[in-house]
Amino acid sequence: MTVSFLIPTWNRRDLLESALASVLVQSRPPHQILVVDNGSQDGSEEAARAAGARVLQLGSNRGFSFAVNRGLEAACGDAVAVINNDVQLAPDWTEKLSAALRNDDCWFAIGKLLDATNPGRIDGVGDAVSRGGAGCRLGHARPDGPWFNRSRRTYFPSATAVLARREFFTRVGAFEEAFFAYLEDVDLGLRAALLGLGGVYVPEALAYHRGSSTVGPWSPDHVEWMSRNQLLLLAKFYPLGLLARFWRPVAAAQLLWAAMAIRRKRGRAYARGLCQGLIAAAALRRASSRWRADGQRLAEVLVSSEREVACFEQATGWDPYWRWYFRLAPAPPETQP
Predict the structure, then answer these.
(1) Candidates 3.40.190.10, 3.40.50.12370, 3.90.550.10, 3.40.630.30; correct CATH number of 3-209?
(2) 124-175 tens-digit pLDDT
(3) Helix and strand totals (H; E) in the chain
């Protein structure tokens, strides 16, 4: 199996150089390295070429989803590894995940992401989504431990670092460019779940992530894009009947996110994202009717994924957001906080 590496980037040459260095020392050498540059002004293009990568220069920041999609069009490997520019891979990352893809029912594989600034702490072990449409980075900020060493099936290919068959994107489709950045992998995972194309979490495949290094955690852009994209997820996937059925978790997710943004003095960014989401929702909804054709299947996916969130939170310590979410929109009794 040949592997094309795809790294979208926007400035932060130092991070890109580290990511490329970790790709070049993989025990399973890359077949192709593609760096998609969103108009960097710090010499990132030169650094990528010096590492032997092919650079696709976009000229301006077109967003994460747009950049990855241009890379997918140029990829020629049997499988495609999508990694952020702020990720460093363990030398056997490709080898471990490639082994998982040998199974016929495995369309993608993700590994354990550790915090690059504190490797004893989890950055994420995959994604999930609640009935309310809020994404969850499973295990984020928890101390590493036995709970995170269990392999499991998943439908959500975290775009921070994932290895997928090229055919996976042919079947599921490319990243949703309306999202620009954030939650585009949750969108992809919902499509994968509706089509029954699952993957696997391989805890032995390690990578190290400096989260939100390009934009910054809780920056105005981050809050704005997240606020918009949460609404776009609802618009794209939820039939009206399901919105009515899940009104309570949807309301809880939106109110809690607004409260978090306001608490961090990002109320204006939240309001901008909310307005943008409301404006863009109608067009996206019209273009995405196929994904709302089976509301019952989507409900099953959301309930199952939310239970996974509750199980992780219960086992590793409740994050305040999720504690309040499950109080406002109770989960099944066995997973209540």
Answers:
(1) 3.90.550.10
(2) 999 999 999 999 999 999 999 999 999 999 999 999 999 999 999 999 999 9
(3) 12, 12
